[in-house]
Design a protein that fits this description.
Chain B: One of its GO terms (biological process) is transmembrane transport. The complex is a heterodimer of chains A (about 300) and B (about 280). Chain A is mainly alpha-helical and about 300 residues long. Chain A has one domain: Orthogonal Bundle (MetI-like fold). Chain A has helices at about 10-35, 50-60, 60-95, 105-115, 120-130, 135-140, 155-170, 175-185, 190-195, 200-230, 235-240, 250-260, 270-295; strands spanning about 40, 45. The longest helix of chain B has about 35 residues, at about 245-280. Classes of the chains: A mainly alpha (about 300), B mainly alpha (about 280).
């Protein structure tokens, strides 16, 4: 097999993918990080080192927005972890029950929101929660909770949480499917062995199944983290680029869009936008590294 | 097998919980669609009622057809999605074949390099991507979107497809080599047909994010003639916020193609997710 001549077909097979991937993904990624070190004065690009990052983190005008967006983004992520993943796990546990009828039907129906675009989801919920239309208040009225209603998307203290919950509603299908697959792969013998020892029902879930699906929960957590820290669409669709009311729903994605593209009176600044992208890159990288080196390697994988 | 796992009360409770959540998942979609067929007055008076002879109206759809160029948007979305998917599958499969079939220097390194993009979102590089597209004159063309989505889809495609290609029997390929087939013929005629299920999985995985993306159409191709359906409906709804009939109809029209695709491909999608996670 081993020949001295160059095997051109390997290069031919690799070239298109490597070229497109390098030119459109990797190169722009590093170019963006490079652009973050420049600024524009009188239409010429000048090198300023880490000045943009200093502005972003410490200049009162910028840093207030940046820390606000970062804090909101962490809250957004926390809601997903606390609401989306437990609900997803619970649904998967129910669906994976042996001899449950209509399981495929439930599974397909619950997954529908996940395939809809943010535009549809954002506007649909905006309409439903709107006090003008009155679906939400009249439904709360039907169960006697009308006093709980508030224009949630319009109030600073509720808007971000409401949007996070809408996003949870949309994406709960993903943890559900992944956990469902993990639960199905648990061999029957293990569960039967547990039954012989008297572990059935709920305690079988907590003591046998849950420890076995922890690696999948880890994967879901990192997917949620990466997804949340470059989220943009839902906030943009329902609250606009200004992420109102009063920036209370601003996250890093909308902040970056506003900064680099410009909005209304604010002029676009690609260099500050790159600096924000750099910060997002660092956050995602730290998250992925914590997962890969801190969590995944320490997780015990059971040989099934 | 065991009585403890089959208790009628438990079963009822499980169905109750699942039905409740299914209702939560479908309710907003249902409300939007039924109200898109109603007159403005009945939208507000009885939002939860089904349209009947008195309240039925297509006024919203008429506005959408007259004011928005939804067929063009739909066509753009379709072109972008189909062409990007074709590139992702072809280039991804070729690279996956090179990585899984041949031993060469830097093979592992190349695999790692291509896998980088699985975890790092392409959006981070948006500023430089826009600059590049402006410099090459691709801004406001569908090619800009196609290139970006191809690059975005390749890492996962290469990863999944090379896992599958390792399982293709060596005997088959070597038999082909003995018969004098070229490496290209072996790839296209012997290997590709065998990994078709994996290709379908990759296609379905990529289809939804490409179709639904708002970020890149907004930044790279916001011109009227290159708007995708997602961007087009976002802009349309933004302009017609006060015309509830039009907004509801536009939303329903955006939901419809995705739902149709989902009904066609849901088995493939679910099988893909479940088999991918088990590894």
């Amino acid at each position: 097999m081993q020949t001295r001549r160059i095997r051109w077909h390997i290069a031919v097979f690799l070239a298109p993918a490597v070229l497109v991937y390098t030119a459109v993904m990797i190169f722009p990624l590093f170019n963006t990080l490079r652009l973050a070190l420049f600024t524009e004065v009188d239409q010429t690009r000048i090198y300023v080192g880490l000045q943009n990052f200093r502005t972003l983190f410490f200049d009162p005008i910028w840093s207030e927005q940046f820390w606000n967006a970062l804090g909101n983004n962490f809250w957004f992520f926390l809601i997903h972890m606390l609401v989306q993943n437990p609900i997803g796990i619970a649904l998967a546990a129910l669906l994976s029950h042996p001899r449950l009828r209509f399981a495929a039907l439930y599974r397909s129906a619950i997954f529908i929101p996940t395939i809809l675009s943010f535009v549809i989801v954002g506007f649909a919920w905006k309409l439903i929660l709107s006090p003008l239309w009155g679906i939400a208040p009249s439904m709360l009225d039907a169960v006697g909770l009308k006093s709980l209603f508030a224009p949630w998307l319009g109030k600073e203290e509720y808007a971000l949480t409401t949007l996070a919950l809408v996003s949870v509603w949309q994406f709960v299908g993903i943890p559900m499917m992944l956990i469902y697959a993990a639960l199905l792969s648990i061999p029957e013998e293990i569960l039967e062995a547990g039954e012989i020892d008297g572990i059935t029902g709920a305690s079988a879930f907590w003591k046998i199944k849950l420890p076995l699906i922890i690696p999948s929960i880890g994967i879901i957590s990192i997917l949620t983290f990466v997804g949340n820290f470059n989220a943009f669409d839902l906030i943009y669709v329902s609250q606009g680029a200004l992420a109102g009311p009063d920036f209370s729903t601003d996250i890093l994605g909308t902040f970056m869009y506003r900064t680099f593209f410009g909005f209304q009176l604010q002029l676009g600044d690609p260099h500050m936008g790159s600096a924000i992208a750099g910060a997002m890159f660092a956050i995602i990288l730290v998250g992925v590294c914590i997962y890969l080196f801190g969590i995944q390697t320490r997780m015990r994988r059971y040989q099934l | 097998m065991n009585k403890a796992r089959q208790n009628p009360l438990n079963t009822a409770a499980m169905h109750g919980a699942l039905i409740l959540y299914t209702l939560i998942a479908l309710f907003p979609v249902f409300v939007i669609i039924i109200n898109s067929f109603k007159t403005r007055r009945s939208i507000f008076r009885e939002p939860l009622a089904l349209p009947d002879a008195e309240s039925f109206s297509l006024i919203g759809y008429q506005t959408v057809m007259k004011q928005g160029d939804f067929f063009l948007y739909f066509q753009n979305s379709l072109i972008v999605t189909v062409v990007s998917l074709a590139f992702v599958l072809l280039f991804g499969a070729m690279a996956a074949f090179a990585l899984s079939e041949y031993k060469f220097k830097g093979n592992t390194l190349m695999g790692l390099y291509l896998a980088l993009g699985i975890m790092i979102p392409i959006r981070i590089g948006t500023v430089a991507i826009l600059e590049m597209m402006v410099a090459t004159g691709l801004v406001n063309t569908l090619w800009a979107l196609i290139l970006v989505y191809t690059a975005q889809g390749l890492p996962l495609a290469v990863f999944i497809l090379s896992e599958f290609m390792r399982q293709v029997s060596d005997d088959l390929k070597n038999a082909g080599r003995v018969d004098g087939l070229s490496e290209y013929t072996i790839f296209f005629r012997l290997v590709l047909p065998l990994v078709r299920p994996a290709m379908a999985t990759v296609a379905v995985f990529n289809m939804i994010p490409i179709w639904n993306d708002l970020w890149f159409p907004l930044i790279l191709a916001p011109a009227e003639e290159t708007k995708t359906l997602t961007l087009g409906s976002q802009v349309f709804i933004g302009q017609f916020v006060t015309d509830w009939n039009a907004v509801l109809s536009a939303l329903s029209m955006a939901i419809l193609p995705v739902l149709v695709l989902y009904v066609i491909f849901s088995r493939q999608l679910i099988r893909g997710i479940t088999s991918g996670a088990v590894k």
